[in-house]
Amino acid sequence: MARKTGRAVNDDKSTKEVKRTKATHPLTREDRTEIFRIATSSFLRRYGDRFERGMTDELLAEALQASLGIFGGSGGPGRPSVTYTGSGLRIWGGWHIVNHVTEKPLFAGNATITMAREVYGIRNPDNKQLNLF
Questions:
Q1: 85 - beta bridge partners?
Q2: Are 22 and 94 in contact (CB under 8 A)?
Q3: Whole-angstrom distance, CA of residue 9 vs CA of residue 3
Q4: What pLDDT is stored for residue 132 in this prediction?
Q5: Mean pLDDT score of the chain, rounded to an integer?
Q6: What is the separation of C-alpha 12 from the centre of its chain, rounded to a whole number of angstroms?
Q7: Could you tell me which residue, 49 or 112, shows the higher pLDDT?
Q8: Virtual CA dihedral for 118, 87, 67, 130, nearest 10 degrees?
Q9: CA dihedral (125, 105, 24, 39) positive or negative
Q10: Count of Cβ atoms closer than 10 Å to residue 38 Cβ
């Protein structure tokens, strides 16, 4: 009888196959957005009133750094593992237990700022180009 894991298993016919789970699939755009929202949940509570006025890249980076803090994370059944740090504005995530030492972050530096603008609709008052959308 085959076990339902992410590892190769043997069934009664001694054939090997890999059972696919969320842990073996690459992250979708929705997964990455969910991971970002989990990591920045305090950002929305602390700075949400400033979103409509807009924030410069410098102010946004300071706010994200303060919200992410020194180091943190979360995880649990049915939700992705998330690790984050304000240092470098780095966020790691996945459907497996994330190792922040050996894995590359999903978001870091300017990519974190760009994702915050996209997810929370924060405009940049320094950008003089008209918003076309």
A1: 90
A2: no
A3: 6
A4: 57
A5: 84
A6: 40
A7: 112
A8: -30
A9: negative
A10: 18
Which one has a higher pLDDT value, 125 or 39?
A: 39
CB atoms within 10 A of CB 50: 13
Q: CA dihedral defined by 90, 28, 116, 124, rounded to 10 degrees?
A: 120
The tokens describing 43, both together, are 């950002």
Q: Which bin fits 76, alpha (ψ -120 to 50), beta or left (φ > 0)?
A: left
Classify the C-alpha dihedral 10-16-17-23 as positive or negative. Answer: positive
Could you identify the residue written with the tokens 């740090």? 85
Give the C-alpha separation, 23 to 111, whole Å.
Answer: 24
| Per-residue tokens: 108 | 């870091």
pLDDT, one tens digit per residue, over 5-64 is 444 444 444 444 444 455 557 899 999 999 999 999 999 899 989 988 899 999 999 999
Q: What phi, psi does 43 have (nearest 5°)?
A: -60, -45
CA 89, chain centre distance (Å): 11
Q: Which residues contact 85 (CB under 8 A, 6 or more apart)?
A: 68, 69, 70, 71, 72, 100
Contact criterion met (CB below 8 Å) for 126 and 57 = yes
